[in-house]
Write a structure and sequence with these properties.
This is Hydrogenase nickel incorporation protein HypA. It comes from Clostridium beijerinckii (strain ATCC 51743 / NCIMB 8052). The protein has a three-stranded mixed sheet with strand order 2-1-3, covered by helices on one side. It is 33% helix and 35% strand. The longest helix is centred in the first third of the chain and has 17 residues. The chain is of the alpha+beta class. It has a single domain, classed as hypothetical protein PF0899 fold. The chain has two helices and three strands; from the N terminus they run αβαββ. Helix 2 links the parallel strand 1 and strand 2.
Length: 84
């Protein structure tokens, strides 16, 4: 899959934002990707579970929206979670 780099970037930025804002569990997460991107709720959840399992789990609802943005770009639209 050619969106592996994008999944990694989303994962890393989610981790950074959660650390900055003392979020220890992500409840809902909405990301915007390009219409041609292969990123979807399932593969994003799987990737986040593998690399951010303390933040993302069964309790997390992931929404992927599609807009006309640059390829290999994602906008982290909203993150809601529990603060430590």
């Amino acid at each position: 899959m050619h969106d592996t780099i994008l999944l990694s970037k989303i994962s890393e930025e989610l981790k950074n934002i959660c650390e900055t804002n003392n979020i220890n569990k992500v409840k809902t997460f909405t990301v915007i990707v390009n219409h041609r991107s292969h990123v979807n709720e399932e593969n994003l959840y799987e990737h986040l579970q593998n690399f951010n399992s303390k933040l993302v789990g069964k309790w997390t609802k992931i929404n992927v929206e599609r807009e006309d943005i640059q390829d290999q770009t994602a906008i982290l639209k909203s993150i809601q979670g529990e603060q430590s």
